[in-house]
Write a structure and sequence with these properties.
- It is a single chain.
- With 224 residues, this protein is of the alpha+beta class.
- It has a single domain, classed as Jelly Rolls, CATH 2.60.120.620.
- It has 6 helices and 12 strands.
- Strands 1, 2, 3, 4, 5, 6, 7, 8, 9, 10, 11 and 12 form a 12-stranded antiparallel sheet that branches.
- The protein is globular and about 50 Å long.
């Protein structure tokens, strides 16, 4: 063997995706995500916004700049944002049986809450972001509602970037070519996305100076 030449490192394969999930309507018909307006209803939306603002002073700082080498779900993606646990208003929505039935109808598979409560995220400081990742185990479907975003609708800052056509690739490969297959979703206040975040890689672009983006996040488990 020649000296000074090492064998190339093997790249981890992307974790297998259960066949029922690949065949579900959210994947087959809409690439792993759907956008909604008016979900939740205006009364609940206003309540979520008020609750998020009330909880903001007690939000926790989430910052990490270390490289993330995870190829599948979980990991610790680089991030800079603020988060708080939910309050009574989001708790009630999270436990609402109608919402579970609606998401079940959208996914074509049984959807149930992944935990006891959701959270609020605040991208409120210049450059706040969340890097590429797959959601943690049990958070198969994330329901994300934009409560506030004072940026222009044509400004990509703070947008959700999805990679629905690269679900079979390990995250390390996607990190090397973040522009390939990127689907930019600029959600407006009042819009909600149902995202199969356990299989669709995604990230949040940094917000601009003076931009404030507040979202409600609830995680659901899909029973297969």
């Amino acid at each position: 063997m020649m000296q000074g030449i090492s064998a190339p490192m093997e790249r981890a394969a992307a974790p297998p995706i259960p066949e029922p999930l690949l065949a579900c309507p959210l994947v087959k018909e809409s690439r792993g995500f759907r956008l909604y307006s008016g979900l939740p209803d205006p009364y609940t939306f206003n309540g979520l916004m008020s609750e998020a603002l009330e909880l903001y002073p007690s939000a926790n700082v989430q910052e990490s700049y270390e490289p993330d080498y995870e190829d599948g779900r979980g990991g610790k993606p680089p991030r800079k944002l603020l988060t708080s646990t939910a309050g009574a208003i989001q708790d009630a929505l999270y436990a609402n049986e109608w919402l579970q039935e609606f998401l079940t109808s959208q996914a074509g598979l049984r959807v149930v809450p992944a935990g006891n409560r959701g959270s609020y995220s605040y991208y409120a400081r210049t450059g706040d972001f969340l890097e590429l990742h797959l959601d943690v185990d049990r958070c198969d479907l994330a329901l994300i509602t934009v409560l506030h975003d004072n940026s222009a609708s044509n400004d990509p800052a703070g947008s959700l970037v999805l990679y629905p056509d690269r679900i079979s690739e390990p995250l390390s490969l996607i990190r090397e070519s973040l522009e390939d297959g990127a689907c930019l979703v600029k959600m407006l206040p009042g819009q909600t996305i149902a995202l199969l975040g356990g299989i669709v890689p995604h990230r949040v672009l940094p917000v601009n100076e003076r931009q404030v983006r507040i979202i409600s996040v609830m995680c659901f488990q899909i029973q297969i």
